[in-house]
Design brief:
alpha+beta, two-stranded antiparallel sheet
C-alpha cells in the first residue's frame, strides 16, 4: 500500500529491535509478530499483576448470588440477560475479573 520496498521495512524493524524499541514475538503465518517494547512490557506487567491479585482467599464473604440477582432485578425493574447473570456469578466467585 505504501509502496515501500520490503527490504527497507525489514531493515527498519531490525534496527528497532536492535535498539530495544521493538520486541519480536512468536512466529505466525505471515512472519514474526513485532510489538512496541513499551507496550510489550506493560502487557507483561499487567498479566503478572492480575495473576498476583487472583491468588489467595476471596476478600468478600460468600453471598446467595441467585437471591442477590433477584433483588437487583426487582430494584431496577427488569430481568437481566443470562449473560449478565453469568457475569455476576463469575464476579462473586472471582477475586479478579476482566470484563470486556
Amino acid at each position: 500500500m505504501l509502496e515501500i520496498p520490503a527490504a527497507t521495512i525489514e531493515a527498519a524493524v531490525d534496527h528497532g529491535i536492535s535498539e530495544g524499541r521493538l520486541v519480536q514475538g512468536e512466529e505466525r503465518e505471515g512472519g514474526p509478530l513485532v510489538y512496541l517494547a513499551g507496550l510489550d512490557h506493560a502487557e507483561r506487567k499487567l498479566s503478572e499483576n492480575i495473576i498476583s491479585l487472583s491468588r489467595g482467599e476471596h476478600p468478600c464473604p460468600p453471598i446467595d448470588v441467585e437471591r442477590a440477582i433477584s433483588w437487583v432485578e426487582q430494584k431496577v425493574g427488569f430481568t437481566l440477560a443470562e449473560a449478565q447473570r453469568e457475569a455476576i456469578r463469575l464476579a462473586v466467585r472471582s477475586k479478579v475479573m476482566v470484563l470486556t
